[in-house]
Structures are given as structure tokens and as C-alpha cells.
Amino acid sequence: xxxxxxxxxxxxxxxxxxxxxxxxxxxxxxxxxxxxxxxxxxxxxxxxxxxxxxxxxxxxxxxxxxxxxxxxxxxxxxxxxxxxxxxxxxxxxxxxxxxxxxxxxxxxxxxxxxxxxxxxxxxxxxxxxxxxxxxxxxxxxxxxx
Amino acid sequence: xxxxxxxxxxxxxxxxxxxxxxxxxxxxxxxxxxxxxxxxxxxxxxxxxxxxxxxxxxxxxxxxxxxxxxxxxxxxxxxxxxxxxxxxxxxxxxxxxxxxxxxxxxxxxxxxxxxxxxxxxxxxxxxxxxxxxxxxxxxxxxxxxxxxxxxxxxxxxxxxxxxxxxxxxxxxxxxxxxxxxxxxxxxxxxxxxxxxxxxxxxxxxxxxxxxxxxxxxxxxxxxxxxxxxxxxxxxxxxxxxxxxxxxxxxxxxxxxxxxxxxxxxxxxxxxxxxxxxxxxxxxxxxxxxxxxx
Amino acid sequence: xxxxxxxxxxxxxxxxxxxxxxxxxxxxxxxxxxxxxxxxxxxxxxxxxxxxxxxxxxxxxxxxxxxxxxxxxxxxxxxxxxxxxxxxxxxxxxxxxxxxxxxxxxxxxxxxxxxxxxxxxxxxxxxxxxxxxxxxxxxxxxxxxxxxxxxxxxxxxxxxxxxxxxxxxxxxxxxxxxxxxxxxxxxxxxxxxxxxxxxxxxxxxxxxxxxxxxxxxxxxxxxxxxxxxxxxxxxxxxxxxxxxxxxxxxxxxxxxxxxxxxxxxxxxxxxxxxxxxxxxxxxxxxxxxxxxxxxxxxxxxxxxxxxxxxxxxxxxxxxxxxxxxxxxxxxxxxxxxxxxxxxxxxxxxxxxxxxxxxxxxxxxxxxxxxxxxxxxxxxxxxxxxxxxxxxxxxxxxxxxxxxxxxxxxxxxxxxxxxxxxxxxxxxxxxxxxxxxxxxxxxxxxxxxxxxxxxxxxxxxxxxxxxxxxxxxxxxxxxxxxxxxxxxxxxxxxxxxxxxxxxxxxxxxxxxxxxxxxxxxxxxxxxxxxxxxxxxxxxxxxxxxxxxxxxxxxxxxxxxxxxxxxxxxxxxxxxxxxxxxxxxxxxxxxxxxxxxxxxxxxxxxxxxxxxxxxxxxxxxxxxxxxxxxxxxxxxxxxxxxxxxxxxxxxxx
Lengths: 145, 293, 651
Prior knowledge:
The complex is a heterotrimer of chains A (145), B (293) and C (651). Chain A is of the alpha/beta class and 145 residues long. Chain A has a single domain (5-132), classed as Rossmann fold (3-Layer(aba) Sandwich), CATH 3.40.50. Chain A contains four helices and four strands. In chain A, strand 1, helix 1 (14-23) and strand 2 form a beta-alpha-beta unit. In chain A, helix 1 (14-23) crosses helix 4 (110-127). Chain A is globular, with a radius of gyration of 16 Å. Chain B has two domains: 2-151, NADH:ubiquinone oxidoreductase-like, 20kDa subunit (Rossmann fold, 3-Layer(aba) Sandwich); 164-260, no CATH class. In chain B, 33% of the residues lie in helices and 13% in strands. In chain B, the strands form two sheets. Chain B has a five-stranded parallel sheet with strand order 2-1-3-5-7, sandwiched between helices. In chain B, helix 1 (15-27) crosses helix 5 (140-151). The two termini of chain C are 22 Å apart. The chains are: A alpha/beta (145), B alpha/beta (293), C alpha/beta (651). Chains in contact: A-B, A-C, B-C. The interface between A and C is large, with 53 and 53 residues.
């Protein structure tokens, strides 16, 4: 099983970049699932945490290039700050922080979009998949002796 | 008269019972304590309990048994305090597997310790909970309100959808510093002004109201003990996404240097009831155990 | 319970050639609330749209999922289809199973179909939760800003003005005209360039609907389609435009001499000057960096000589604020820096010049009054090498074609041939691309006139022992390295975006293509529109092109602006945020994260609550992502909707 990647995109840059990859027929693994938002400023940590719990192996936050490309001025800065703290949180939780990745992809960078998906897929393959989360009540008691 | 059981699970500090002791003079005519191992020395759960106030997080096999028994024998079961409501401070242990935890605390691997669950959990993980009264400790006014409601058979109060900011009297200018400081790091803190605006982390923004903002009004930033407001499930995530947004002009490395412990800051009371409630190491260890069986 | 209709498009073979469309339909039909699930060869065809409308009526559908191509291009089409069937256009959700699935996973058909099923299910999950959105009509300011006064900007400005709308034309230089004013002739007709451009420049200056702002720069743009607020910096000319009659006595008397930018450094100008005789406006400007009065405090000759007292040394920069409904960006190009191709010796040998420099030498109002002389030697070259494609189509420099270099090389050969009839002329080109109307004919004509064409690229330019230059070129037809002894080398440089366009890009937040030119919405179907609604691009700002294409595109951009203004209104951004006042606790986080001042905190029943100004809200959703209490939601992108999609994709 290929690792599953959730890709959060903004509409103006990274989603358009993914479209360009399509128009140019640049192939990448069918493991990346794009959810379109209007701006990377809408990309919140919850989407990544939820994705990792629900079975995604990695989450790719994307947006317009830092510093000046964001059509909403600073959405990309917000995404960057959230990803920085999220990565730290994940490492505290004992989850590889590289399961969350941040990339700036412009509306013309279809090749970059494909390249990032390739790279990320390979990295996640090396990491192996996350175990499937269960309710705490299903974890039971540790028999120690 | 409420037949009241005080069920103290292992992950508890007795703070919630002290909170009850605080209000006892006001509610004494209304209650009859039928079970408590702490303040009444009754160690058998009777039947026909009107209200079980459960404090502490679920951490042992014994906790689960007592909890289930209490549930079966009670008309109402209320999670009292942050531990029973969300997992609380003991929930922070969920970033360790049990063996590691015990080694950390005892150095060796003691046989005397009761059998631990693989992760600390809020009461609601195991039984149906009729009401949550979080807080560390729970605000005494809310505790009285709850007991009066139960005694007078009124509907239980609605959990708050607003946050501590709603009750906080500190002044706001709606302008934020572009840096984060530790409380001791600045000597020009204005204690009459919103802490977060001054770059000092305060968790009140994503913490349910009801405490009358006691901490901030006494010069201490909110730590988030009341858990998330009604519309939010994952309090820590809200704090993280929100605070990151406000201080997004700080570059990433500096931000992580200033907020080195997002787990401790943002999930101090709620990790076991959050989106990712424990480290996946616990699952790996469990799968290994199951595999070896 | 929502009633969802799902439509899976084949897009001919684009989707159905890779994905198992029938399997998608079978799987998605099982989803909760899906009432109808169908596939169709072309959903966007009128028949496909009719199918949706019919089902909406027959099955009482209230949520529609179209699994096809990108919502960026096709969402408006399907939204219209919903509207026609009496359903709110916001009850549509698209699953992009073409651009982001079939096209990019062509060789993994099974896995791609699995992925498509999840994408469609996720769209269904979101569609089930979609809510009605109200949009408002906002009036459009009846004026247009055109940035750049070259032939593109001039054309666009005139077209808009003639349609009856007010135009502000902003040019950073002291005269309009752009690069076309520098050209001697234009290919392939060999029209005198300024003779055809000059009248248009005058028309711009005199048209009652056009306000011409030269020596000015756009420094700030706020607002949105239909209602842009623009700040323009009008630099001090130090000459009062209202008084100056254009007699240019000042220019005659000015004692300083400065290399002329207009003549590409080959000629000189004064410190008070118009860049060329046909300049519009014919009002000089003082170059304060070289003027004796500004540098040394002496002289003031121009002030003394001016018969109308138009010289004003105290004149200061001004900021002009205007409001426009649309913006046309026509910032043009610049020649690629010839020093970046050092093997050809530009800057080292005075006999190596660029194509634009040759234009100035050939021009009757250029530094040599139209006599082609070798710079630094002041004599006519007898042997000339013209290097087409310099810096272009070269991975180390510019990977793309400049679209004018080949034809310029031929035109420049003609200049020399007709100025110096006995001259030997080599045109070295990897291949000659003569694709336009009359271009191939022009190519044949030049060949027939005895110009020597060599297929290839020059490798180096050397100083040869005889004192002239040696151009090394491998000729594949002879399989030999030739060394051409020449007196003049002309480099037909590739084109790059005008460096000043970078500032405009920042101000307008435009995207650029990988080659650095402004990015259009769609290269074929929407070539002048940008991702910023109401901002249009044309000419070389969009990509290198020749004059006919530039003029055509400028008219197209003007048409788009006129379309917007003539309609008179735009609809407000639908995906704005709203505040649940019961939950809002007035923390003000949203106020601090909003870049558009769209949220303020107001007192309501003695409580602080956030209030959104939907006219200012751009719908980025940053505040929704930051709101700690969950009081703010973004329409069409609610937390619940996004989480539902993530859950569906994870299954």
C-alpha cells in the first residue's frame, strides 16, 4: 500500500499548480488527495491531526510563495507558523514531524507539485504507516510482570 | 436530599474533593454522602445512588471496574474536574508507554503497582457521562449550581459555548505584540491589560467560561483548565492554530524557541480527549504484545 | 435529508480512458443521500447540463456533485446550470477527477479509479453539508487604470476611452511610446515605427477620456474588482506641465551632457530633456542627478531662458489617489542583459551591440541621424554578423523563444543592406522562425537580397589579429567551424519582463509564470485575465510577442475591462465569514489576523463581539482558522465540511 497523503491547497497558487501538473500530464503517485481551501490561511492544524488519526500517513500544507505571493497578503505566514508548532507537537507526541510538510507551490509549478508528491511519498514509505488509532478504552491494560 | 457518591479514580489529586469541602456548608442540607474513600471512609458502593461525582482520570483496571459499578448504581454520573472530564494533567502521561512511564517514576519495574491501562482517559471513554464540570479545581459556584439543580430536579446547566475572554476584565486594545514572552521575561507587563496582546501566552481564548476569569484577574495567565468551549472538541489544536496565527510574523525557528512545549501549553488538561489522544508508540507496543501472545 | 445528484464526466477519453467510470458510479451510488448517480461523455456540453437540470426537477435534487475537471475553469459553468434549474449555485461541489487524477495517474488505472472514488465520495460528503449563500451586487467604478505607456498600454487606453469610459494611463518614463518608439522600422512591412505610433501617442494625449500621468508610478492598490483604490506617485518633473509650451529652448541651452537612455547609451542628452523629439507629452523633465543646479547649486540657465516661467526647482513629488473599476497591466519587456552571455564580448568590444542599439543607430532621430556607424570607430561596417537567438532557447539563460529575434535579425540585415549596399551580412540563427502574416515572404525577400544565413549558434566572439572581430560558428552543412571576420556584431537579445513589473506584481499580488512573465488564468481561453479579478494583462507583460500580437492582446484586455464596466456591477465574494455572536467572546484574534480590516469588535448588550464587514471580507478564511471559540465560520469551507471530506478520503 502506497502511503496516503492529504494535500491542503489554496485556490490561487497550489491548487492551480496541481491543475497545471494535470494539464502537462506530469505523472505522480495516486496517493495524494487534494482538499481545496481558498487560502493557506484557512489551513488549520486540526485538518492535519484529523487526517493522521483517520489513516493518512502524511499531510502536505501548501500555499503561495513566501513572502509576497499570497493573494490574501499573509495566509502563507499563518500556515507556516501553524506548521512549525504542529511539527513540534507531533514530535512531542512521538510522531515523526516529517509526516507534516509545508511547500510553497505557485500556479505555474506543476512540476514542483509532482516532485514534492514523489519525494514525500518516498519519505513516508521509508517511515512506514502510522498504526490505526483506537479508542483508549479499546487499548486495554498492559500486563507487566 | 441527594444520595451522593464521591468516586475518586486513581489519577486524582483530591483537589476536586477539596473544592467540594469548600462549598460543603452551603450544600450540606441537600446531600448525604453514601460513598467516599477519601472523606467518609466508605469503601463499598451502595445501590440507589442519585449522583456520582467522579474525579480523576481513568488509569487502572480497578478504576474501570469502580467506574462501571458506579455507573450501574447511579441515576446521574458527573465528571468532576478536568481529569475526569478530559484526562487532565495525568493525561499528559499519554506520550509514554506504560513501561517507560514506570521506569521514569520508579527507576525499576515494580510489581506492587496496580495494573495500568495503556493510556489515561477521561471518564467518558468508558461510561456514559451525564454532565461534565471541568476545572482544576472546578469553580465552586458551578458546583453549587449543579448540586442545587440535581436536588431540585431541574435540568442541568448548559455547558458554556463562550470562552474565558467573555468574562475577563483585562483591557483589550485588539493589537498584538509581534513577539512571544515568558511571564518573567518582561518587566513592563501591564497586569490590567490582556496578557496575550502583550505576547504572554494565555489560554483563555480557547477555554470554556464559567470560572469568572479568576486567574487572569489575579495576574496569572489562564492555563486552560476548563477545557474547550462547547463548539470545540480539540482545545489544544484551537490554541495552537490560533496563537500561531496571531504571532505568524515571527519566523518559524524563533516561534518554536519561544513556544518550546506546545503539548504542555496547549494540551495541559485535555490530551486524552483530543484528536490524537496518545502517542502511537502505545499502539506499536500493544501490537507487539498481541503479536507475542 | 439532502438529496444529492452525482454526475461523472467521461471528458471523452480524458477521464474515461484512464478511470473505470462505471465502477465510480456503482460505488458512489451506495453513498448516503445519493439519489441519482450517472455518467455522461461530456458533462459541460449543453446536453450534459440539461441532464442535470432535468434530474433536479424530476428527482427533486437539492445538492449536485459534478466529478469532472477543475472547478477553477468549470465551476461557473455548472453553477449556471444549477441556477437555470432553479437551484442555488452554491449547492454545487466539484470533484476534480481529471486534472488531479486521470491525467496524472495515466499508468495506474486501478489505483487511479480507487482514488477517484474517494474524491467523489468526499465531494458528496461536503455537498451534503452545503448551505445557501447570499451574494450582493456591488457597483463598478466607471474608469480603468492602464499601467504602462508602450504600444500595448496606448492601444488599451484608446480602446477603453473610445468605448466611453474614463482611463488613467500611468507611465514611469517622462514620455509614452515604450520600446516601439525606439524602433526605426517594424517587420515585415518596414513601416516607419514612430510614423505609425506617433499619431496614437498624440491621440492619447488629447482624448477627453484619458488622463495621462507620465513620470508616475503606481505605488499602492487596495480594494477589489470594480472598486480599486489606487495611489500613484507623480514624480516631480521640476517643470510645470500646465505652463510649458514644449519649445525646448531649455534643452537647447542646458550645458550638461548625459548618456541617453532612450538611445541605449549610444547618444547623449541634456539634464533637462525630452527623451526623443516626438515625446508625448512634449514637456521636458529635469534629471536632478546630473543637473548642475541640483548637484552644484549653480547654472539655472533653463529657468532664465524659459519664456513662460515653467521651470520650478521647488516642485515636489505628489501622490494622486484614484478609484477605478478595472486595471490593465501593460508593463512590457526589457532586453536580456547581454553581459549574461559573456562569450559574445558585449561590454568588452564596442563593436558588439544589441538589436535595440542598432535600431537607434538606424533611426533618423538617433545619435547618428540614421547612419549606421560602428560605435567607437565612427565608420560604416563593411562586414556584419547578426546573432539571432542570443540568450533565448538556452537552458543556461532563457529557455523560451523571444518570438521577435529571428524577424528582427532579418530586418536588421535589411537596414544594413540598404544603408551600406556593399556590406557583407551574416545572419547566424539556429533556425529562422517566420510564423506570422507576411513573415515567410519577408524571409525569402531578405535571402534573395544576398544576406548570408548560417544555421547554428556562434560559440564565441574574439578580437582577431587584424583588429576586427572574429565570430566563431559551427556550420553543420559544411561540418566546419567558420571564423567570420566582421566589423560589427549585433546581438538579438531574448526578452525578459520589464524589471519595473516586479514592483507592480507586488502591489497587485499577481502570479508569474516560471519564465517570470505575468500568469494568465488560462493560456488559450483566458489569456488576458489574471487570478485577481478585474486585473488584466497584455503585451509583453504576459509573454514575449511582436507588435501585431501585442496590439491584438491589448484590445482584448480593453474589451475585458469594458465588459466589466459596461455590466456595471460585480457580485460580492460568496465565501465570506460570519460570526456566531452567541459564541463569540470578543477575544479579537480575528481582528488581528485579518489583513483587510474587515472585522471589528463592537459592543453589543454590554459584550464585546466581532462584526464582519462583508464588503471588505475577501473570503480567505484565515480568521475562521484562527478563531479559538469556533464562533467564526467560512461559508462553503466550514470546519464541518472540510473534516467530512478528510474523513471520506481517509476511508
